[in-house]
Amino acid sequence: MTVVTEDSPRANGRAERKRRRPAGRGRLTPWLLAGPFALLLLGTVLVPIGYALYLSLFTERLSGLGFDGPHDVFVWLGNYADVLGDTAFRDSVGNVARYALLHIPLMLGGALLLALLLDSATVQLRQLWSLSVFLPYAVPGVIAGLIWAYLFSPGVGPLNDALPWDPLGSDGVLPSIVTMATWQWLGYNMIIFYTALRTVPRDVLEAATVDGAGPLRTALAVKVPMIRPTVFVALVFTVIGSLQLFTEPLVLRSFTSSVTSTWTPSLYVYEAAFVRNDHGRAAAASLLLALACALLSALVMRLSTRRSR
Amino acid sequence: MAHPLGWSRRSLLRASAGAAALTAGGVGGVGLTGCSSSTTASGATRVTLWSWMTGMDSYVAAFHAAQREVHVELSVIAAGLSGGYAQQTNAIKAHNAPDILHVEYQGLIQLLATGGLRDITEETADLADGYSPAAWRAVRPDGRTWAVPMDMAPMAFYYRADLFEEHGIEVPRTWEEFAAVAERVREADPAARLTTFPLNDGSFFAGMSWGAGDPWWRIEGDTWVVNVAGEGTLRTAGFWQDLLDADLVGGGATGTQDWIAALHTGRLWGYLGAAWGVGTLKKSIPDDTGRWAVALMPSWDPARPANGMQGGTAFSVSAESGVPEAALTFLRWLSTDPEVPRIGATFTSPFPAYLPNRDVAREVVADDYFIGDPVYEVLDEADARVPEWTWGPNALGLFSSVADALGRVSSGATTIPDALRGVHRTAVATLRDRGLSVREEGPA
Asked: What are the TM regions of this chain, as residue ranges (chain B) (predicted)?
C-alpha cells in the first residue's frame, strides 16, 4: 500500500536512488511505464465521463403515442436543472448525508479503536483476530445485504425484536443500513490503520514509554498523530463510498416499502437509467454525484494537509 | 495492489448484476448476441432470443428436436425490472437487439416507445381466434399487433380452505364481504390476518385498480388519456387504507421469507395473487398440500364481476431483425404448440394465453395441491373477467412511483388515496415532458 508507506524512510530512500540514476536510458521508458495506466484511464474513466457529459446534454423526445420511437433533442443544461429541481434527488442527498454523519464516525472510530487495541495488545491470536474482523469485507455486498435483510425481517429474523428500532420501518432503515455498512467496512479499515500503526518506529514508542507515557497516552498522543495521513485517506474513501451508497438500500427495497426507488443518489441514477430509460437525466445526475465526490475529497484532503502542517 | 476504492463503481456494477441474477432465481448470466451470420453450419436460420422465462431452454431444445429449419440461440437475461428491460432497451438503442425480445404485457408499451419492435399484425392475423380475448387485446394496444402472447396472469384469491372451514367462514364474493372476513379472521386468531397489502409493489396495486375497472391509460386517436387517480382506483385505495387503519390486513411485502413463513404458520390466511401464484405456493410451501384453495377475486359490483392481471408474458420481434419469418416460426410454435404446456407442466403450472394449449395444461398439470374448486376452472373464469385496460409508455416507471408513494403510508405520513393523486400528477408530467400528446382526466 503506497498509502501507508509514503512517509516511511524506505520510500524516501527509493526516490533518492531513482533521481541518481543516469539520464538518457531512453526517453521511451516513462511512456512505456505510464502507457498501460494511461490507456486504462482513457478507456475506463475519461471516455465514459466524456460520453456521460455528451449524454447529459440531450433528452429523448417522443411524439404522439410514442410508437414511432424517440429522437434526441439537445437541451443544454436542462437535465441538470431537472435533477437539481427534483425533490426526489434532494431527498436522496439528504439521506446519504444523514447516513454519512452516522456511519463515518462510527465506522472509522471503531476501526481506529480496534486497530489501536490490536497494536498494543500482546495477544497470541492477533492474526486470527484481525482475519475474523476483516472477514465481512470478503462477503459480497448483495449476499451480505440479503442475510441482513433476513435478520431484520419480522417473524423470521431475530434482530427485529432485539433492536431498539424497527429495522425495516420508515425511521429504522437508516440505522439498519448504517449497521450493515459499518459491519462490512469496519474490518477493512481496521487492517489499513493497523498496517499503518506497525510502521510507527518502535524507538519513538520506546521514547514515549521512557518519558512516562502510559499506553493510552501513547496511543492518543503518539500513534494517532503519526498515522493521521492514513486516517485522512480512509476518510476520503469513506466519504466517497457514503455518497455512492447503493447495494444495501437496493437489497432492502424488496423487503420494505420504506426504501424508495430513489433513496440514494446512486439509486436515483439507476432508476433513471434502467427503469425510466431517461439516460440524459441519469448522466446529469451521475456527473453531479461525481462532482460532489471530487469536491468533498478535495475538501477533506485540504483539511488533512492544513492539519498536519 | 488492492485499491481501497473498492466500494465505488466496481461493487456498484457487481451489486446490480448480482441483485439481478439473484432475482432471476440464480439463472442470471448476461448474454450478448453475436453479430454472426444468419445461418448455422447445417443451413438452419439462426434466431437470437433473450428471455428470462423459467424453462425456456427446455422449450428451445424441444423446438430443435421438432424441426431443422430454424436454430434458436437463447441468452438467459435477468428478469424484467431486475435488469432485463434495461438490457433490452439498451440493446435496441445500440442497434444490436436480438431477433426475439421478452416482454410482459405491462412492459410492452414502454418497450414499444423505444421504436424497437416490429409490427407483426399481418403475419399473426390468423392466430387471433385462438387466444384469450384479454391476451389478444394486450398485444394490440393501438389495433396493430406488437407481440405474440405466451401466458396469462389474471388475479385470483388464494385462501386457507382448511382454516376457513374450521371457523365457518364463507369465501368473500365482494370487497365488502372481504372486509368482514378480514375481521372474522382476526377474531378467530388475534395474531393472524386475512392477507397482506404489499405497499412496496406497484404492479400489485395496478392489478387491483385494473379490477376496479378504471384504466390508468387509454388511447384516443393520437393521444394518451391518463387517469391514474380515477374513481375506481381511489375506491380501491380508500378501501385498503381503511383495512390498514383498522389493522385488519398487514402492509408487508409478499414473496419474502417472512411472508412465506406467515403463509405456512397460519399468520396469513389468504393471498391476493395472479395465476402464477399457483406455482409460487406449490414451490414456497410444498408442505401445505391440501390446505389451500383458489377462488375468484372479490368484486365491487356482483352484477359485473371483474379482476385485473398482474404480469403475463409475451414475445416481440425486434424491428431490426433480419430474420423475422424464422423468429415468428419459433414464436408461433412456442405460443401454440401443445408440446409446450406438456413440457412446462414438468416444472411449473403454465397458464397459456392460447386457449387450446390451456386445455392441454389443464389435463397434464397435476391437480393434487389445491382443494376446492378446480384451479384451471377458476383461473379460466378469472381470465374471462379481465376488463379493458391499456398500459402506458411509462408503466414500469410508474410502478416505482406507486411503491415510493405508498412507502410513506405505513408511517402515517400520507394515505393511499393521497399518494395516488400524487402519482397521477407525476405520471402526467412525465409523459408531457417526453413530448407525448397527453390529455389528463382529473382525479375524482
From this structure: none
